[in-house]
Amino acid sequence: MISSKDVFAKRKQGQLDEAYQLALQLMSAPGAGEWDHKALGWCLIDLIKRDSRAENSQHMEHYRLQLDDVVVSAVDEVFAKQRDYALSLCRPDGRLREEGKALSMRGEHAQAAAVYREALAAQPADSGLQTSLAWELYRYGKLLLEHESVNVGLIKRNLNEYLKLSVEKPSILHSCFLQQAAKLAEQGNLNMLGFSRLWNLEFLRPEDFERFQGEDGKTYPALAEKFIRQACKDVIASKNTTDLTYILPYLDGAIQRYPDNIWIKHSKAKVFVAVGRYEEAMLFGVDVAKAKPGEYWAWDLLGDICEASDQEATRSCYCKGLMCSRDDAFIGKLRLKLANILIAAGDFSRAKFEVERVVAFKVKAEQKIPEAAAQIVAQQWYADVEAASSNLDYYQVNAVGTEALLFSNMPWISASVGERFTVTGQDGKPKKRRRLFIEAGTMPKEVNIRESEFPLSGASPGDPIRLKGEFHADNRFQLYLIEQRSAGATWDIAPTKIGVVDHVNEAKQVAHFIVERGVDGLIQLSEFSSTLRMGDVVAVKIARYQTRDGARYRVLVAESTGEVPGSSVRKGFACNVRAEREMGFTPDDIFIPPNLMKAAAISDGDWVSGVAILNFNKKRSQWGWKAISASKQVDHSAGTDLQAESPLIR
Question: Peptide bond preceding 170: is omega within 30 degrees of 0, i.e. cis?
Answer without folding.
Answer: yes
